[in-house]
Amino acid sequence: MKTAAEDRFFRRLRTALGHAPDLSRDATQLFAQGPSADELQMLDRIDGRSAADRRRLLERLIEAGTPINLRVVPVFDPAAAREGIAAVVAEKRPEWGEAKSVAAWRHPLIDRLGLEGALARRQVPLRITDPIAPGAGAGRECDRAQRDRQRAAVIASFIGVTGADFCLAETATLVLRNRPGQPRSVALVPSIHIAVITLDQVLADMKELFALLRWAERFRPEGLSNYMSLISGPSKTADIEATMVHGAHGPREVHLFVITG
Amino acid sequence: MSDISTEKYVAEARRGIADPVLRRSLASLQERFGRGTAAAYLQLPEGPDLRVTAHAIREKAVAHLDVLLETLAATIRRNGGHVFFAATAKDAVDYCLEVARRNQVRLVVKGKSMVTEEIGLNPALAAAGIEAVETDLGEYIIQLAGEKPSHIIAPAIHKTRNEVADLFAAKLGIRRTTSPPELTQAARKALREKFLTADMGTSGVNMACAESGHITTVSNEGNIRMATTLPRVHVAFMGMERIVARLDEYEIILRLLCRGASVQTIGTYVSFVGGPRQQGDSDGPEEFHLVVVDNGRSRILADPQFREMLCCIRCAACLNICPVYGKIGGHAYGFAYSGPVGAVVTPLLTGVNRAKDLCRGETLCGACKDACSMDIDLPRMLLALREKLAYGDAAWQVEPASRIEGLAYRGWSWLIRRRTVYEMALKLAATGQRLLPRAGAMIRRLPPPIHGWTQSRDLHPLAEQTFMERWRKRKAPSNARVNSEWAKKNPTGEPGSEGCGGGEGLGDEDGRRG
Ligand code: SF4
Q1: Cα–Cα separations (whole angstroms), residue B40 to A232, B124, B261
Q2: What would the pLDDT profile of A123-166 be if each residue is shown by its tens digit?
Q3: Which of A7, A28, B156, B207 makes an SS bond possible with B141, Cβ 3.0 to 4.6 Å?
Q4: ipTM score here?
């Protein structure tokens, strides 16, 4: 993979740093070999969180969401989340074109909501983004047709429903890792993004997030995945005379349903 | 390389100062962000000293740049991405053109990136017949207007809503409106089409993390996420210094970046990109390319005086506080980077002589250092550049900007080390200055070759008696008594003035007298 040009690049770099130009240096000392005392404490704190602690985190989340226009809706169970989502679908108008349709992730929590029926009663089609099944043979061509269909469905939807891996209370930040069946465009291309999480997915802040992703057995293997998005509220811009406008390129609204029961 | 017009600094600065609309927007920008950033640092749980920690993190990363970049590249390649190390702007641009050609790219959507501005990507794409659309609203506005960004974070800060209204009415064919939400909506609509049809998306890199193997982008609009999600190919450009070792370090840098850039606790979208889409994924680019750009940075790295500049994360906090930037605006700096960061980086990247007025235009007031999210000592480096300009420097191919200046300072240094000669010279000057034109107690004009100094300000005359003369007249056995007597006689505590006051700079906003 390495070319002569790349070799020259690194020689110049090492020379500038005052090292022998040809010698690749050892990197291990730069990277942590295990969790620090602080991080261990953080992991314990996350594991030991009581129901009351979680409630407090939820309050912080709601508070942090307000100034950035993130609507946080605590709901008791999946059924209440479903009704909340259906209400948004009924109330809001599509931004591009007339017909309403909703795209949603293939995701265990979203599956449990039973959105399909609720939306069908309102004659709004629901398109689930299933993982792309590897086509026969290798290469990128075979599954292109599936992907193109899914892309078109997401583009045509005015609402996208996703889960999230975590939510950071401090900054009202949703954390979405990339997985088959859970395309990032569902949280991006439709005009309204609705996310559904359970209360135990709420963390205090980004420090906790990184401690978990780096060191917790459950999360470490997947790590950050090949694409992780942190999303804090709806898209916004202040590029014209510093006037804040929501809905620059991404969603204009973000609704977050937190299942507490 | 992109157009560089640093030579026109003085003329452009004059133009900026003369533009009342620009001055108003700059004032309101600085009013909000300048103060807000300082307050945001204070509210950090670790306090403003977190900037010192961040500086150390960045310094360490820069000192281990070779290993960090190797680690990052290895991980990205393992995940199916491509990494290209570009020695020059041309190498970087050519690589991108080659990727575009291989993929038969006709339309490129660009996420805001100052490094693509630095390497001149847009003109190169245009020359190759490829349409490149800036998608950050501010960048889009100035691209439509055929202008250049005037701020690292708020590129269209110099445009009013009226100008944008005219521009959009003319270029997008919409009904003229001055309402920012309607204008934003018009751009949203026009650019959505571009996002959905583009073959390639480009982005910058706010910061990469070697340990995790990701580059990250930060935006509020979501344009960068669109540009790096929808097209088939994503090419990311990063200045080679934009990397930290570990995620816990990254967290600190990110918090400071968002506060320094726009007084936010976090940008709306922070994306970690570790490669192209994986098996089973339904979206994300098929190809991911990371272009790591040197383009003169290794020279900065090799010089211990300037290595600190590579700690910079281009947050633009220094622009939002700088009294000079606040008056002249960003165009005067004539390159991708404006304000205090530009005054140091532009000479180092494009040639010190060529950009000599940039580092001489700053006031050395130190506000940028206090505002800098990475606690970078910009004034120190401005001075170091001025020193090179005064004496010349072979390593940086700097010609002395003015032989006379160098000689004058050499003479001065000789003089102040010789007490009696110095005092004689002072006497002479104190007598000589009576010939100079005055405005009240102040000297109005100095003779050539130092007349430039009084072009826009007056000079305090030398005192009739020097401090030393007065000191000697006191018969004082002990300092303690002298001090207490002094205090009695001078209840305000104002000592006799010997020197002259005032800093350097382009002049105040009342313009020049005389
Ligand atoms: S010098 Fe400091 S304040 Fe200025 S852009 Fe760089 S990091 Fe930000």
Answers
A1: 18, 40, 11
A2: 999 999 999 887 655 555 567 888 899 999 999 999 999 999 99
A3: B156
A4: 0.96
Cis peptide before B449 (omega within 30 of 0): yes
Q: Does A178 touch chain B (CB under 8 A)?
A: yes
Q: Domain ranges in chain A?
A: 69-259
Whole-prediction pTM value?
0.89
Residue B269 to residue A189, Cβ atoms within 8 A = no
Give backbone dihedrals phi and psi of A198, rounded to 5 degrees, phi first: -105, 160
Asked if the model's pLDDT at residue B92 lies above 70, the reply is yes
A250: amino acid identity, one letter: G
Model pLDDT for residues A204-254, shown as the tens digit of each residue:
999 999 999 999 999 999 999 999 999 999 999 988 988 899 999 999 999
**Would you call A229 and B65 a contact, using CB atoms and an 8 Å cutoff?**
no
Q: Which stretches does DSSP call E strand in B225-346?
A: 233-239, 243-244, 269-273, 287-293
Min Cα–Cα distance to chain B from A120, Å: 25
A155 in contact with B, Cβ within 8 Å: yes
Domain limits of chain B?
6-300, 403-454, 467-502
Q: Which residue matches tokens 């075979």?
A: A142
Q: Could you say which of 3.40.50.2300, 3.40.190.10, 3.40.50.10420, 3.30.750.24 is the CATH number of the domain covering B6-300?
A: 3.40.50.10420
Distance CA B497, CA B461 (A): 10
Domain A69-259 matching CATH 1.10.3470: the answer reads no
Contact B227, B1 (CB under 8 A): no
| B202: β partners | B110, B235
Nearest atom within ligand 1 for CA of residue B314:
5
